[in-house]
Amino acid sequence: MVFSIYAAGQPIWALGVLVLFGAGFHVYLSSVNFAYRYLYPGVAAMVVFVAFPLLYTASIGFTNYSSAHLLSEQRARAYLLDQTWPVEQSIMDATVHVQGGAARVLLRSRSSDQILVTPDLNGTGAGPVQVQPIHSTEELAPALDIRDVISRRDWLMRLQLKLPDGTILSYAGLREFAVVKSLWKAGDDGALISAESGVRYTPNRETGFFESDSGERLSPGFTVAVGLDNYARMVNDPDFRGPFLSIFMWTVAFSALTVAFTVAVGLPLAVLLNWEALRFRTVYRTLVFLPYAVPAFISILVFKGLFNQNFGEINTILHSLFGVRPAWFADPTLAKIMILIVNTWLGYPYIMILCSGLMKAIPSDLYEASALAGAGPLTNFFKITAPLIIKPLTPLLITVFAFNFNNFVVIALLTDGRPDFLNTKVPAGQTDILVSYTYRLAFQDTGQNFGLAAAVSTVIFFMIAVMSIVNLRLAKVNAQSR
């Protein structure tokens, strides 16, 4: 496997596979400590599925990698050198005839009545194959249909036919053979020269294209290092900076408001459902837990139908009561409100479960003493319940914030980031958050700018890393305080 990867021109990948499997063989086939045999699968999985994607994504952020720059310079040059074009005057119509397991190719001239045929090729054929004139095609089997010709396409592409005058014909289409010439010739210093016009195209290692002196570019381009250009674009390019800053602020607001609203709904419900005097508590607990039990994508799609401007139940009710039909998906503010409503519905059961578990740890003696002092439910909540659960709840709320910071599903399924910003060179929606914005940059933009998307992803990673560090610090402080 390692040799195959190396032979394919990927020495770094070959080295990585060699190290991974070599370490595995050493751990399991030598007399090392048995603890390493249990640690190795987890460490290897972390390297392959966490560390490697992170480093690979970060490295792409320093390149111009995109749909127009997918190949290396050597592969792009080889691809262009392989391009050919058939000489129009030499094209001959071709049919394939198979009889008794042997294949023969019949050529018909477009400019004369000349008919040529190959000898039996037995389905293989090593070129150039000499063809001879034939006066009648009655001795040949019927020509294969297009489906059977396509099944033999690889063989036909390797076939070369030699005419009586010495001209060599190559495969030029499913039904054609012709004299094929290269579009490009190799020049010195990695340049390409047009075989037709003689124009020279030199590799520009700043733009990633083969360019002529007049600035004409050849496609495909090739991947080059661009340093911090993708990161600088986030700050310096006004067409990118405007949507990026707006999307960043909305991402923070979306995450923070989701936490606030889910706590505002989940915490009171947890307090209510922990009230022992409440009848049918089990039934209520089951009902309010349902949004968490239903798969999120189903709930999101149901809400997408409910908020439909013309046929949704929500607008039908609002029109009946107030005579209005809000444009939930067209108005940016209403779209954001809709997203927060749906995300609150999806998230409050989780907060309710967390708060219910934390309240179980509060000593009942405190509530009994409060009752003897004549305190009411609100006093108990603000003086006992909230202060005692806020510290252990804070790291969990930071986790919820970080999760919603990357909550791609609710944005993609509900609004797909729309409505879009106007007059921008990059695709950006007013309800996009950073992760959905990155997805659109990488896969939905006409240029599919993977390098820029990787740079944005790296920025998001460091933001989430900071939140994780804060979370760990808060958890450590809480543990020490207890």
Structure, described:
Helices cover 56% and strands 12% of the residues. The protein has 482 residues and is of the alpha+beta class. The strands form three sheets. An eight-stranded mixed beta sheet has the order 5-7-8-9-2-3-4-6. The chain is elongated. It starts with a helix and ends with a helix. The mean pLDDT is 88.
What is the gist of this entry?
This protein has helices spanning 2-7, 11-29, 34-60, 73-81, 146-151, 153-158, 229-236, 238-273, 281-293, 296-306, 313-322, 332-360, 364-372, 377-405, 408-414, 434-444, 450-481, and strands at residues 84-86, 92-99, 102-109, 115-117, 129-130, 132-133, 160-162, 168-173, 176-178, 180-182, 184-186, 192-194, 200-204, 209-211, 217-218.
Q: Which overall shape is indicated by the principal axes computed on the Cα atoms?
A: elongated
Radius of gyration: 34 Å
CATH H-level superfamily of the largest domain: MetI-like
What class do helices, strands and sheet pairing give?
alpha+beta
CATH uppermost class of the largest domain: Mainly Alpha
Which band does the percent of strand residues land in?
5-15%
Number of strands: 15
Report on the biggest sheet: 8 strands, mixed
Outline the low-pLDDT stretches: none
If classified by CATH, what would the architecture of the largest domain be? Orthogonal Bundle
CATH topology of the largest domain: MetI-like fold
Strand order of the largest sheet: 5-7-8-9-2-3-4-6
Query: Helical residue percent?
Result: 55-70%
- The rounded distance between the terminal residues' Cα atoms is 54 Å
Q: Supply the number of structural domains.
A: 3
Transmembrane segments: 12-31, 38-56, 247-275, 287-307, 327-351, 393-414, 450-472
Subunit structure: The complex is composed of two ATP-binding proteins (MalK), two transmembrane proteins (MalG and MalF) and a solute-binding protein (MalE).
Protein name: Maltose/maltodextrin transport system permease protein
Pfam families: BPD_transp_1, MalF_P2
